Amino acid sequence: MKEKNVPEQLKSLVRTIPDWPKKGIQFRDITTLLNDPKGYHLLIEELTKRYKDNKPDVIAGIEARGFILGGALAYTLGVGFVPIRKKGKLPGETVSQEYELEYGTDKIEMHKDAIKPGQKVLIVDDLIATAGTSIAAVKLVKQLGGNILECVFIIELPELQGRAKLEKECKKIFCLFEFEGE
Q1: pLDDT of 2-44, one tens digit each?
Q2: Which residues pair with 127 in a beta bridge?
Q3: 115 and 60 in contact (C-beta within 8 Å)?
Q4: Which residue of 40, 104, 118, 139 has the fewest CB atoms within a 10 Å radius of its CB?
Q5: Do the Cβ atoms of 157 and 126 come closer than 8 Å?
Q6: Burial class (CB in 10 A: 0-12, 13-18, 19+), 155
Q7: Residue 119 to residues 111, 112, 172, Cα–Cα distance (Å)
Q8: Closest CA to 79 of 37, 116, 134
Q9: Are the C-beta atoms of 169 and 45 separated by less than 8 Å?
Q10: For 63-101, what is each residue's pLDDT tens digit?
């Protein structure tokens, strides 16, 4: 039997939960991947290989799973980590960016001094669906004068067309693998 390539190995460790959080949604749960020591190690190793010769100055992780991935990747690359949080969660001076939800809007924030002008920033999250939070994260980094190295995700849901929306703000997008459906 042929051995799976790394993205296929990682994809096989993601659990699908049907009809969550609502009927018709196939929730892609990465906690099973994170809970697998070999899988989690392989994931961070694969991302480290991608960026070791073109390191960012800092990694910005989107709450909450972007913290888990971005923090580990920042450690292996020897660079700093910046959390991008939901509004009202960060102490001190922040900048915020609104983004659209299915019904209404919300905001994400980061510290005003988190990114220095000209820094290369890698934005990390677990999944790209509609790209609302990712677009807001890119705008926050740009607002502070940062340059986007790339936006990286483990999973892409292509049917939701988030990549096309995000490409208007970020030209370089990398996803390890795709899942069909919402």
Answers
A1: 567 999 999 999 999 999 988 988 999 999 999 999 999 999 9
A2: 155
A3: yes
A4: 104
A5: no
A6: buried
A7: 15, 14, 16
A8: 116
A9: no
A10: 999 999 999 999 999 999 999 999 999 999 999 999 987
Architecture of domain 54-178: 3-Layer(aba) Sandwich (3.40)
Q: What backbone phi and psi angles, to 5 degrees, belong to 71?
A: -65, -45
Alpha helix positions (H), 78-180: 132-143, 162-166
Q: Which of 61, 54, 30 is nearest to 43 (CA)?
A: 30
**Catalytic annotation, residues:** 65, 102
Instruction: Give the E-state strand segments of the chain in sequence order.
Output: 15-18, 26-29, 58-62, 80-86, 94-101, 104-111, 120-128, 147-156, 173-178
Give residue limits of the domains in the chain.
Answer: 54-178
- The Cα–Cα gap between 26 and 38 comes to 25
Structure tokens that stand for 155 in this block: 């999973």
Please report which helix (H) or strand (E) contains residue 71, including its range.
Answer: helix 65-77
